[in-house]
Amino acid sequence: MWGRNVYDSISKFLQFQLTVNIVAVIVAFTGACITQDSPLKAVQMLWVNLIMDTFASLALATEPPTEALLLRKPYGRNKPLISRTMMKNILGHAVYQLTLIFTLLFVGEKLTHTQSSAHEQLG
């Protein structure tokens, strides 16, 4: 029961971390290429990593096993840790988060009727 719980927790941890890291890398790279300045500064990236690692580790360590884990068949030795369903979830959530972040980055000023500090420095 504990072994299956650890396996499930590691799978959830990987799914969460891969999603966050894929989004962070794409936002930093694409934002830097398009705007000539990274939307996430080094200190912000460190905070993102610190917060995401902390919450993911807490979730990994605090979920107790249930009796329902024993009702399913055990996973085989050759089963990949990241399943096809997990990969779909990772990519789906990453696309959703990227859409939201890029919308805020590129048209956020128009949506919120504000100006960023970058425009104030230029003017």
TrEMBL record:
Which terms does the UniProt entry file under GO BP?
Answer: regulation of cytosolic calcium ion concentration
Residues of the Cation-transporting P-type ATPase C-terminal domain: 38-116
Q: Which residues form the signal peptide?
A: none
Q: Is rRNA processing a UniProt keyword of this protein?
A: no
A Pfam family it matches? Cation_ATPase_C
> Where are the membrane-spanning stretches?
14-34, 90-107
Instruction: Supply one GO molecular-function term.
Output: metal ion binding
Q: Which GO terms describe its cellular component?
A: postsynaptic density membrane
* Name recorded for this polypeptide: AT2B2 ATPase
Organism for this UniProt entry = Rhodinocichla rosea
Gene name linked to the record: Atp2b2_1
